[in-house]
Amino acid sequence: MPFRIVDLLDLPDLRLSVAAARDRLDRPIEAAHVSELLRPGAWLQGGELLMTVGLLLPMDRSACRAYVHDVDAGGASCLVLGLGHELPYQEAPAPLVEAAQEAGLPLLTVPHEVPFIAITKAVFAARAAEQRLALERAYEAQRRLTAAAASGRGLTATLEAWAQATGVGAAVTDPLGRIIASVGRGTEAALEASGDLIQRVAVRGLLGSGTSIVHSAHVEVQPLGAQRLRGLLMLTGEMDPATRLLASGLVSLLSLELERRHLADEPGRRRRCALLGQLLTEGTTAEQVRDLLAAAGLVTDAVRGIAIEPTADADDVVADLALAVPGGLARVTGGVVEAVVGGDLDVLEVLNRFAPGFPTGIGPSVPPESAASSLRQARGLLGISRIAGRPVEAQANRSGQLLLELGNRFVLSGYADAVLGALDDADPSGDLVATLATWLDTAGSWDETSRRLGVHRHTVRNRLDKVMRVTGRRLDDGDDRFDLWLAIRGRQAAQHTPTSPGAAPKQPIPPT
């Protein structure tokens, strides 16, 4: 409990008396200060007991009001006037008492037998005792936290000890923000509303932390882990310096527990690695595949293969993926990390978190019995991913577009302009090129082109006739159709490729 004015009045040796604002004596005192300035407010930081003998203070009502207002605006807790026969005042003057009462600023008086230094010593002794008590409480709370962490009852026991000691809610999540344990009313609701904050901290790994205001409550997020991010701690509530000191110990204890869990899961990771090997074994039936996935805790109608070439320790990447993805089916083969995940998993989010910047191929979503095929396609995309500088996803009917997007913008644009430039000049609105592109996409269907563009079938035919006249190309000639298709796709791809020759693309590579 903070040291208050009423506590100071209880010290008989100081012989303090209350002259004004008796109802405000519960104010805390942070320090003691002596000043004879008429405007001392600028020299205050807040919470001070300000002492004066009123040497320069004129005793008219307006001057006293201005003086008291300045002291109060400076944040002082109370004003102490020294009285004595050789001092300006032998009792508190009425204008000063009235001004203090109006402002609600406690005014105390002290006789000349008690020097100001005695009050200063009393205040600082009380503050030192208060801080010593806070530290003792923090150490005792830390002892209880350590005992809870060592009890073998896991994260929840440690969080409960924290909440009992501080009253601050807490939650531990995995690196993707999924809750593992929590204590405190409203903590889980605050966690749901803090998704953006958690993601920002998680992306920075062990170097990140962040604060925010959620539902009018202070929220703080800290990373957990020793050398790699193993989880996140969210605290909800205001923390004083002693509680914040205790929070540092809490982070350490929770990090140790998550590291212990990580090491304890090593046999489980080896088991899941063996399951993945069985899953990809040639000749495994669909029923056996589903049983293997169920054994790993992954019940799904579709899966995807992922192949990663890590530049860091591959075993760490496998461990992170095993923690992050449902089922945890991951292994290292020939320096490449392979994983099979559910078809509905946000693969890019997981990769951005645990394998940022690594060449990565993502196989298509397939039935579980075709997991090996998806993984094979994922490995086949690693070379393209190395060139692209980002993950590449396999998807039907997009391989040609991907290859174009890996080309050089100047070359692509130049080829497209050479083939389509006459159409651009003849029709600046772009209707001719758009109609041609739609007609090629629909495999030459007049009706489907008409439907997609929202124009009459005859309009489509008239536009395409004009295309042939302007370009000199025949749409019934395979080579001409291919040139036109390539020019249109090249122009589209040029918008996703770098401006400098040979540079890596800056835009995400779309599915292939």
UniProtKB/TrEMBL annotation:
Pfam families: HTH_30 (PF13556), PucR (PF07905). Signal peptide: none annotated. Gene3D superfamilies: PucR C-terminal helix-turn-helix domain. It comes from the Bacteria. InterPro entries: CdaR-like_regulators (IPR051448), PucR_C-HTH_dom (IPR025736), PucR_C-HTH_sf (IPR042070), PucR_dom (IPR012914). Residues 493-512 are annotated as: Disordered. Residues 7-125 form the Purine catabolism PurC-like domain. Residues 432-489 form the PucR C-terminal helix-turn-helix domain. This is PucR family transcriptional regulator.
